[in-house]
Design brief:
The protein is of the alpha/beta class. The protein is 34% helix and 24% strand. The chain has a single domain, classed as Metallo-beta-lactamase, Chain A (4-Layer Sandwich). Keywords: Hydrolase, Metal-binding, Zinc.
């Protein structure tokens, strides 16, 4: 059987996701940015919410938990390292654990940096990766709590996943990410192509997710911090990838 993913807008620029295991009918929300948007998506699909998978503690990813749990009696799975920051969690997980949704298996990866306990969920069989604010199309999340070394290692682990993996991130930031990426890697043909595609999608009022991980590996400067050409652009020949990653992230913060 398979997993169906429903993508819908929430809040001002969040993505909402419902994942539906066709074998059993179980349906999970990936994060809970807005209860009303999730309930509207459920109604549209004719699904009943059974689970919520939480990636990190920020309010725009957890605000709907209480209302949805009260209405649907759902199981809420979330990051063990942030259990003290997120109310109503039923099951705690960390990198290396697995979570079942009916017959669908999700592997959990640690992705620290945006928050220290940030996790992501990977459906290997269906080739779906839910990264929230750890990895965006052509970017990564702002490093609010972590440090460059662990954040780089986290995104590098995601980079090792197959190129045909479909990535579902937390926000529609791709167009602004593309502008920054072009400022630091202007001769990257893959990036130029992706930026043009993104402009066309946004002009048409369409979302830029999901995106192929393989395309992002070639175009996202944060996934290329170990590329010698990018290091040279920053005058960092001989620096570690984590040091290059830190400089890219700092430049993006003030772009």
């Amino acid at each position: 059987m398979s997993l169906i993913v429903d993508v819908f807008p929430a809040r001002s620029d969040n993505f909402g996701y419902l994942v539906h295991d066709t074998a059993t009918g179980r349906t999970a929300a990936i994060d809970a940015p807005e209860a009303a948007a999730i309930k509207t998506a459920l109604l549209h699909r004719g699904w009943t919410l059974s689970d919520i998978f939480i990636t990190h503690h920020h309010i725009d990813h957890v605000e709907g938990i209480a209302e949805l749990k009260a209405e649907f009696g759902v199981r809420v799975v979330g990051p063990r390292a942030e259990a003290d920051k997120i109310a109503d969690l039923d099951e705690l997980v960390a990198g290396g654990d697995t979570v079942m949704l009916g017959e669908t298996t999700f592997k959990v990866y640690d992705a620290p940096g945006h928050t220290l306990g940030h996790i992501v969920f990977h459906d290997k069989a269906g080739k779906h990766l839910f990264t929230a604010d750890a990895l965006f199309s052509l970017g990564v999340g702002r490093m609010f709590e972590g440090t460059p070394g662990p954040m780089w290692e986290g995104v590098k682990a995601l980079r090792d996943l197959p190129d045909d993996t479909l990535v579902y991130c937390g926000h529609e930031y791709t167009q602004s990410n593309a502008k920054f990426a072009l400022s630091v890697d202007p001769d990257n043909v893959a990036l130029q192509k992706r930026a043009a595609e993104v402009d066309a999608l946004r002009t048409a009022g369409k979302a830029t997710v999901p995106f192929l991980l393989g395309e992002d590996k070639a175009a996202n400067p944060f996934l290329r911090a170990d590329d010698v050409g990018l290091a040279k652009h920053f005058g960092l020949e001989g620096a570690s990838p984590a040091e290059v990653f830190a400089v890219i992230r700092k430049d993006k913060d003030t772009f």
